[in-house]
Amino acid sequence: MKIIFSDKKNGKTAQLEVAKESESTLMGKRIGEVIEGGVVGLDGFKLQITGLSDKMGSPSRKEIDGTRKAYALLSSGPGIVGARKGKRVRKLVRGNAISADTSQVNTVIAEYGAKGADELFPKKAVAKEEAAEGK
Q1: pLDDT tens digits, one per residue of 48-70
Q2: Would you state the pLDDT for residue 117?
Q3: Contact by Cβ (8 Å): 4, 106
């Protein structure tokens, strides 16, 4: 399972992999809840869950309780691309809770820890150089 975390202050985003042993601590958490960043190695940070995706790529909706999948009649929001006034579409979406089928958890930083923002987000130039050296 991946956790994508964003910093609203500088607009940067990064992702970290959750260890299989730590995934059980996230099960049952819902969109809007705050989780400890220590699960992914961000000690002292608190992350607020803003969205989920399952293994098939289905987005989650806050309105649908639990971990189930449902065909919902939607006019905007997650799962809808190119919404127009008056148009509604029935789409397959997932519920608002983390389950074993969840592959991605989107979060924002709600509370900062000891590390600075520069340490959390790798610079693109450095990442490209490291990738070139690894080849």
Answers
A1: 999 999 999 889 989 899 999 99
A2: 62
A3: yes
* Alpha helices, DSSP H, located in 1-135: 23-26, 117-120, 124-134
**At a CB cut-off of 8 Å and minimum separation 6, what does 116 contact?**
none
Q: How far is CA 37 from CA 44, 107, 132, 135, in A?
A: 7, 10, 31, 32
What confidence tens digit (pLDDT) does each residue in 6-23 have? Answer: 888 888 888 888 888 888
Q: For residues 67 and 31, is the Cβ–Cβ distance under 8 A?
A: no
Q: How many Cα neighbours within 13 Å face the side chain of 119?
A: 8
Burial class (CB in 10 A: 0-12, 13-18, 19+), 67: buried
**How far, in Å, CA of 91 to CA of 73, rounded?**
7
